[in-house]
What we know:
Elements: H1 2-17, H2 29-58, E1 65-75, E2 78-80, E3 92-94, E4 99-102, H3 116-122, E5 126-128, E6 131-133, E7 139-141, E8 145-147, E9 153-163, E10 174-176, E11 191-198, E12 219-220, H4 259-263
Parallel strand pairs: 1-11
Antiparallel strand pairs: 1-2, 1-4, 1-12, 3-4, 5-6, 6-7, 8-9, 9-10, 9-11
Amino acid sequence: MGKASASKKIKRVQAAGVSRSPGQRRNIVLPALIVGILIVGSLLTFFARDYRKGERADAPVVNKDHWHAAFAVQLCGLFQDNEPAPDNSDGIHIHSDKLIHIHPYVKDAAGKNATFGVFARNADIKLGDGKFTLANGKTYANGDKCTDEAGKETKGRVALYVWPPQATSKTKPEVYTEDIGKVRFAEQGMAFVLSFGPEGTEPKLLLPSGTCRIPTTVTRHHPRPPRRHLLPRLPMRQHPTPRPRRPQIQERQAPRRSRATSRR
């Protein structure tokens, strides 16, 4: 009896698990729908990534984007003060806030043409093959003597260190020793250090100042302000100040006589 009852329970469970009759086809609509959703999602992700790459390749856009990037010059381990440069026809220059402002006015300074070389030209920094010359006329080249903070003389090397946006002290920068002028301003919030120092040493990530931070949001560029008129400004017409009026004194009128009094 025990074996028979157990076999009956097994048959009942098997019968309950069968949701289709013999010869009936399985429903493949739901699996096909899931597979289709996965394929469409993958294609949308792929095209969105390509569109994003194309958008970044065209940026910064002329008279539209306004980016910022930190910049400093390091000589033998010591950071130098940046000289602010006025705005120019390219739209890539540095302010007194130690930030490179990138808002191109022309196509030659936008997109792939927004390079470190354009900024260096406007900042009066001459870039060469393994050397650079600052605005004060001093030239630093590979192999020149460099005295570090400890007083030790070694051979120096010219390099450009580039950090990505939102980098920290643990982020490793990209090092460029050739074609420094062709390095692009590819994103908002990058950091650049033009260095001449002992080979093998790496400058620290330096923000513009102790309390200043690199903006992380892209601001839309305002149109170039119109030029001031060259004609002299005419003086405004001045109206004479009115004289104060004298208060009017009301004369006291004599009381009228009645008709009866006048006849008398």
